[in-house]
Each structure stands twice: as structure tokens, then as C-alpha cells.
Hints:
Oligomer: single chain
Number of domains: 1
Order of helices and strands: EHHEHEHHHEHHEE
CATH class: Alpha Beta
Largest sheet: 6 strands, mixed
Amino acid sequence: MILIFIRHGATEANEKRIYxxxxxxxxxxxxxxxxxxxxxxxxxxxxxxxxxSGMKRANETLRILYEKEPYLILEEFKEFNFGxxxxxxxxxxxxxxxxxxxxxxxxxxxxxxxxxxxxxINRIVAGLARLxxxxxxxxxxxxxxxxxxxxxxFLFPDEQRLFYEWxxxxxxxxxxxxxxxxxxxxxxxxTFWDI
Length: 195
């Protein structure tokens, strides 16, 4: 099976460098324009099924790049829940003891009112298992930069890339050839390539 992970287009939160995970905001005008340019200049892999996280920014990206509606919404592929840090910048948070503790933990502890890194990874791995149950040779998944980075790190641990080295640009991502085991877990991730 080929899984095509694509990061949504840019939002105002991305442009302002604001933490935005569970907050459901649309693409910015700049983000939309960039995706339309990508659609004109980039050949996207065909997909039997289109899946999104269900967030506005993911659904809008799918409509622009593929001119389709999602076949399936998998909320497991929503971005990290930043809790009380949502819609705030580093500069706004840098005097917060909770924020400093979260940063010093390498973002492993839970954000107040949000989730921790282990729960986030478990959530997205559960989403992968749901993909294995779909009857398709190729699936496009439009989701989020953090989701894609952690999926790729999970599937290809020998690459030893840092989190941000896995995070694709807006509207870009990875195609992954994957094999499943009988329990719908990952048997092995065969290879990947940038798109």
C-alpha cells in the first residue's frame, strides 16, 4: 500500500508563528494561493481514497490540491493539542513556568489542558492501524506537520532525523510504501520519497 502524507497549507497562525493544534482555523489567503500554485506546477500521486484529519485547514487543502472531499475523517491525525498554549506565540509564553517546563522537557510533558508527546504518538499510530483496514492500493492523508513528522520518525527510526527535519513544507509531504501485519499493525515500512 502507498500512503501519501501531505501537510495542509499555511494558516495565519503559521504565518505568525503561533501554536495551533486543536484550534480549527482555515487556510490563510497566502496559504491558498501557494497551494493553487503547487497544483499547477506539481504532479500529485493519484489516490484511491482521500483522508483528512477533519480540520478546516486539512479539508481545504484536499479540495485545492485534489478537488475532492474526504472519503474518511480520521481525527487521530489531528495536530498536537497544545492546551493552554493554543493560539499563543513563544514570546507570549516565555515567562510562563508551565511553558518553560514543557520546553525543557523537550515537549514530552503535557501542556496544561493539552496532551503529552507519548499520548500524541499513540493516537497517530492508532490512526495508522485504521488506514490498514481500508481496501485501497493508495491513500492520500492530508493532515499536519507534527503528525507527519512523528509518523515518519515512527516508521523510519533508522533514519535518525530530528523532529523538524521530518516536517515537510506546506502542501508537501511523503509517499510511503508500507506493508501491514495480520493485526493491522505496521509489518514494515519499505521505503519513502519526498513529494
